[in-house]
């Protein structure tokens, strides 16, 4: 795609202002009547030596679902005891294939409330992906999970 010097200047300005490639594509269409493909825009930006600025993700500080808050201390300043929810570990098996290539998959909620996805692929390999990066369940929770998973899968014919 060949651009006039005016169009090159406009593209550089849009990118400097933080425009994405999709926004540049739309503006070329609306302001100059050009109909470039996304790949055309990407290649043109590379040829110009211009850079697309990464946008900073906006995080809502009031959204407490994204952070696990520690329990509040008692009035006397002592830490509260960890009380696991009734029932301990909960295991669920997906009724539809959610993970491509998985033979069977599901979710687990541990006694501390942390959640994870689990799966067995077609080669029989086990996969475990906690929602909280780096999370490791306690040994007791892991044993409970294994027992409940074995029971749940055997009841379904696996």
Adjacency order of strands in the biggest sheet: 1-2-3-4
Give the structural class: alpha+beta
* Fold-level CATH name of the largest domain: SHC Adaptor Protein
Shape: elongated
Query: Could you tell me the strand content as a percent range?
Result: 15-25%
* The CATH architecture of the largest domain: 2-Layer Sandwich
Mean pLDDT: 80
The overall number of domains is 2
Structure description:
- This protein has 158 residues and is of the alpha+beta class.
- It has two domains: 5-48; 85-155, SHC Adaptor Protein (2-Layer Sandwich).
- It contains four helices and four strands; from the N terminus they run αααββββα.
- The protein has helices at residues 5-16, 21-32, 38-48, 139-155; strands spanning 90-93, 102-109, 115-121, 126-130.
- It has a four-stranded antiparallel sheet, with helices on one face.
- A hairpin with a 4-residue loop joins strand 3 and strand 4.
- The termini are far apart.
- Residues 76-85 have low confidence and may be disordered.
List strands and helices in order, with pairings.
Elements: H1 5-16, H2 21-32, H3 38-48, E1 90-93, E2 102-109, E3 115-121, E4 126-130, H4 139-155
Antiparallel strand pairs: 1-2, 2-3, 3-4
Helix pairs in contact: 1-2, 2-3
Give structural attributes.
4-stranded antiparallel β-sheet; SHC Adaptor Protein; elongated; 158 residues; 2 domains; 4 strands; 4 helices; alpha+beta
């Amino acid at each position: 795609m060949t651009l006039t010097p005016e169009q090159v200047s406009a593209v550089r300005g849009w990118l400097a202002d933080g425009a994405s490639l999709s926004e540049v594509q739309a503006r070329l269409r609306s302001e100059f009547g050009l109909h470039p493909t996304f790949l055309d825009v990407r290649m043109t930006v590379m040829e110009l030596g211009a850079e697309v600025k990464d946008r900073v993700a906006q995080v809502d500080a009031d959204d407490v679902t994204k952070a696990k808050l520690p329990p509040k201390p008692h009035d006397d300043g002592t830490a509260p005891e960890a009380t696991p929810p009734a029932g301990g570990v909960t295991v669920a098996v997906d009724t539809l294939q959610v993970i491509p290539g998985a033979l069977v998959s599901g979710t687990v909620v541990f006694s501390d409330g942390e959640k994870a996805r689990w799966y067995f692929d077609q080669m029989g390999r086990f996969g475990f992906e906690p929602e909280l990066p780096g999370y490791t369940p306690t040994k007791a929770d892991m044993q409970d999970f294994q027992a409940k998973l074995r029971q749940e899968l055997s009841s379904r014919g696996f």
